[in-house]
Amino acid sequence: MKAPAKPVWVAGGVLFVLATGAGLYLNLAPRPAPEAAAxxxxxxxxxAxxxxxVPAAPAAPPLPSLQDSDAAVRTKVAALSLDPGFxxxxxxxxxxxxxxxxxxxxxRGRSPKDSLVFLAPRGGFTVRRRGGVLAASxxxxxxxxxxxxxxxxxxxxxxxRLEGEFExxxxxxxxxxxxxxxxxxxxVRGLLELLAAxxxxxPPRLKPAExxxxxxxxxxxxxxxxLAQKQLLRMGPRNQAAVQAKLRELARALGVPDDRLxxxxxx
Length: 267
Description:
- With 267 residues, the chain is mainly alpha-helical.
- It folds into two domains: 1-59, no CATH class; 70-260, no CATH class.
- Helices cover 45% and strands 5% of the residues.
- It is built from eleven helices and four strands, in the order αααββαααααββααα.
- The chain has helices spanning 6-28, 70-77, 95-107, 138-142, 145-153, 156-165, 167-177, 183-195, 220-223, 227-233, 237-253; strands at residues 127-130, 133-136, 206-208, 215-217.
- A two-stranded antiparallel ribbon has the order 1-2. It has a two-stranded antiparallel ribbon with strand order 3-4.
- The relative contact order is 0.12.
């Protein structure tokens, strides 16, 4: 049986000292006169209750190697969303390495399309002109509807807990990638980068671009955004707002205080 905690022994010792001290006082005190009432005997020592042994929590199974982690990652990450489209996100190999690479490039303001090429939307980017105003077409934004729906369906709290569970492997993958800091630090910088992108009130106006790029944003405030932020804008205002809401929830689940989170902004 597990030994009682030290405070129990202290309490029992104090009771024992009080009881034996009272008995010693009664034995050494002068005898009372015959007419006096007999002294009340000292109470018997009270034994402190011994708490029941608490079973030890089962040890967590050891993590696999980074190279062999895909099966364990798929099994646990699959529970983050019930959206049927989420399963396609878990098919590629080297999931943790891809996650580290994506977090690293996002933290630097670049687009993670090279590490997440499997998430590329179908169809090309299309535009429309109305009243002399050039903007992305609804079809261009609709290409990202499925991805935005999957992101919005994720359990942010569970995702943050899994990040903690696989943190040693994610840190290893981040070191391979050349991240500045741990995976969590890198991920948080990427989240803050994306949360700083404003949500346009309407599809932003476009203009013909130079230097091999077909279109650019007519609003210079949007054109000067980072590549990562511009990629987010390409999802369309509705999808962007849904994705940023989930990213904000994830950042809070990772322990980022509200005063570090960029406030939602629109143009």
